[in-house]
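hey m, so remember when u said the tokens were messed up on ur end? i reran from scratch. heres the input so u can diff it against urs
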Amino acid sequence: MRHLINASICLVVTLFLTLPASAFETRATSAFVIDQTTGTVLLNKNADKMLPPASMSKLMTLYIAFEAVRDGRLSLDEKLPVSQHAMSYGGSTMFLDTTDRISVEDLIRGIIVLSGNDACAVIAEALSPNGTEAGFARFMTQRAQQLGMTNSTFSNSNGWPQAGHRMSMRDLALLANRLITDFPNFYPLFSEREFKFDGRAPQNTRNRNPLLSLDIGADGLKTGHTSEAGYGLVGSALQRGRRVIFVISGFQSARARAEEAESIVNWAFRQFAVKPVAKAGTAVASAEVWMGRDQNVPLVPLKDVSMLMPVTSQGDVVAEVIYNGPITAPIAKDQKIAELVITPPGLPETRIPLVAGNDVPAGGFMSRVGTVAQLLITQMNEPPAAPEASGEQGS
């Protein structure tokens, strides 16, 4: 017997024309690219693999420092002491020593622009639950988990090569997005190209981000390099109201990293565009109604819907409207009763809630009698089901 109540119904509708953009063949060993404005993932290559992040992990130290300033546990003009441990770091540094007391603002700029390993350790010891960088690293891991960064563990504050210090490219993109959205007052620091701290290191005054001077909307965030990790970059760019965030890792040279980063930005903005999908209050389909005054109810989005789509417009995109129905009356206007599921070529699916476009009151007595009668007639006209074989043979 066929049951008409609570059946899953799928309607297929054609919304607009488009063809997939060419996939980007990245040379990175691991990469993740997301359109921040729409949340659309444009590229995923080994994005959940835990890898050594090098100095890109300094973004986590910065996030915690920004939280501390926001919450009043640090002030930008507060001056912090430099320990022997912080001073002992090599690599990229601010050349701090134990006689220094450095303002939080200078330390933050030293981390962002100069990639100071020593500056990270100073911040870490100031905010550590037990006053040590190791204790701060454990807190970094805990805070990362709270932020949804499930493939990140930290052994230090700055990305210095150390066992267990790992992040995924997706986690780094998530962190970049949080820095941009949670701390818009601090984010402009990431586009600062030069920081001459106290005249101590004339060879280390320039921001290593190769995109900042290219006039392509790039405004952050952090490079990284160790012999184990290769050359990597967490980047972001804004063009015509659209923001793209990308993370790449595993390059053999700074030049290869710079070329790939620029290519990714150009590809993301040139090959995709935000296009209208549906207007608020305009029906994209209708759903069957059970025991109502009307036999159907229009399905509409509550607000205008736009999606990121490949720019070429030559083929059909087919979307599905899914709901459990027929839907029993009464139905209230704006009641959520369906979903519009769209999967653009080469991109992940998007689910858009659909609501009832108008009220549908319960039908009167005769309407309900007619609905039940129609159901009974349909069931009576169905061919009888074939008997199931018992599996036994007669003798």
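this time it looks ok to me. The helical segments are 58-70, 84-87, 104-112, 117-127, 133-146, 169-182, 254-270, 365-381. if urs says something different then somethings off w ur setup not the seq
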